[in-house]
Amino acid sequence: MITKRRCPHTGIVNFYENAEPLLAIGSVIEGSDPAHYVWRFYSDDREAGVARDSAAAEVLLRVAIARAKHLNA
Q1: Which residues is 4 bridged to in the sheet?
Q2: Domain count, the chain
Q3: Could you read off the pLDDT of 3-43 as tens digits, one per residue?
């Protein structure tokens, strides 16, 4: 299961796995243009992308995480 927490200082939303609740595996942050959100997956491949809203960015991040888990299974 993946949980998320927003940093009150930076506004970055970090994503964590239950197995490692203190080590972020990905993040979503508002880009320089408020209509863009940048997502990053901190895997070996270091996938990243841009979405028009935070919900879409979160979906893309979760898809990247699921894809990496499937490939490593």
Answers
A1: 15
A2: 1
A3: 999 999 999 999 999 999 999 999 999 988 777 999 999 98
Integer Cα distance of 66 and 7 in angstroms: 24
Contacts 24+ apart (CB under 8 A), 28-36: 28/54, 28/57, 28/58, 28/61, 30/54
- Structural domain boundaries, residue 13: 2-72
Give pTM, 2 decimals: 0.88
DSSP-assigned states of every residue in 14-65: EEEETTBTTS--EEEEE-SSTT-EEEEE-SSS--EEEESSHHHHHHHHHHHH
